[in-house]
């Protein structure tokens, strides 16, 4: 049986789950998709005008962006949490998802998206990217401190 | 009742006004190019950086 399974999330839409116990430090996958420039990403998307935006863009460094909607794998379904059980690790221009603590079978995977905008985030941006994780330390938005 | 069939006559008597307006308008070619390059603002997920290994 595959380690990862996409199914309905209690947080938002579809989520990504592990099907068996998974040890801390395990790399469960690579965030894949088409590698594009920021200019191309801005040509494709406009998150500032969408009332309930979703982003599948991942900063890959040096101005490169991975568009998970274009040829991406199941890691694009990982939802956001302000208290995540995974972290995204950028290595040699690639992005890997690594488990932060031991997880039981059936656990949903979460990343802190720490979203960063092409311009400083406004109060309106923070509200539109509202966080629904329910964690005690939830900051109320998926936008990061430097967003 | 207002006469809805009457429309205001455009002011074409002031050549200075026309000159300023034309100067501020981008050429069709420039405008199309900019719109194609930048549609709007984006938000990207970010990550820890382990550096290039």
Describe the structure.
Helices cover about 10% and strands about 30% of the residues of chain A. Chain A is mainly β. Chain B is mainly alpha-helical. Chain B has 2 helices and 2 strands. Strand 11 of chain A pairs antiparallel with strand 1 of chain B, so a sheet runs across the interface.
Looking at this protein, list some descriptive labels:
heterodimer; A: about 150 residues; mainly beta; Beta-clip-like; three-stranded antiparallel β-sheet; 2 helices; B: about 55 residues; mainly alpha; 2 strands
Major sheet attributes of chain B: none
User: Which CATH class of chain A applies here?
Assistant: Mainly Beta
Greatest interface by residues involved: A-B, 40 and 18 residues
- Assembly status: heterodimer
Low-pLDDT parts of chain B are: 17-23, 25-37
- Poorly predicted regions of chain A are none
Total number of distinct structural domains of chain A: 1
């Amino acid at each position: 049986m595959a380690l990862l399974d996409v199914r309905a999330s209690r947080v938002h839409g579809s989520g990504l789950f592990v099907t068996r116990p998974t040890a801390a430090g395990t790399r469960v996958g690579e965030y894949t998709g088409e590698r594009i420039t920021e200019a191309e990403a801005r040509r494709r998307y406009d998150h500032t005008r969408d009332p309930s935006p979703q982003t599948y863009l991942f900063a890959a460094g040096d101005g490169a962006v991975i568009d998970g909607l274009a040829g991406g794998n199941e890691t694009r379904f990982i939802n956001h949490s302000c208290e995540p059980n995974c972290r995204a690790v950028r290595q040699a221009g690639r992005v890997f998802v690594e488990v932060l603590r031991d997880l039981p079978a059936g656990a949903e995977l979460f990343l802190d998206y720490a979203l960063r905008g092409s311009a400083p985030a406004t109060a309106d941006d923070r509200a539109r990217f509202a966080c629904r994780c329910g964690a005690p330390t939830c900051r109320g938005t998926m936008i990061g401190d430097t967003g | 009742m207002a006469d809805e069939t009457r429309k205001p006559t455009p002011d074409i008597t002031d050549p200075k006004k026309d000159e300023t307006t034309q100067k501020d308008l981008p050429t069709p070619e420039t405008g199309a190019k900019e719109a194609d390059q930048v549609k709007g603002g984006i938000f990207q997920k970010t990550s820890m950086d382990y550096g290039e290994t």
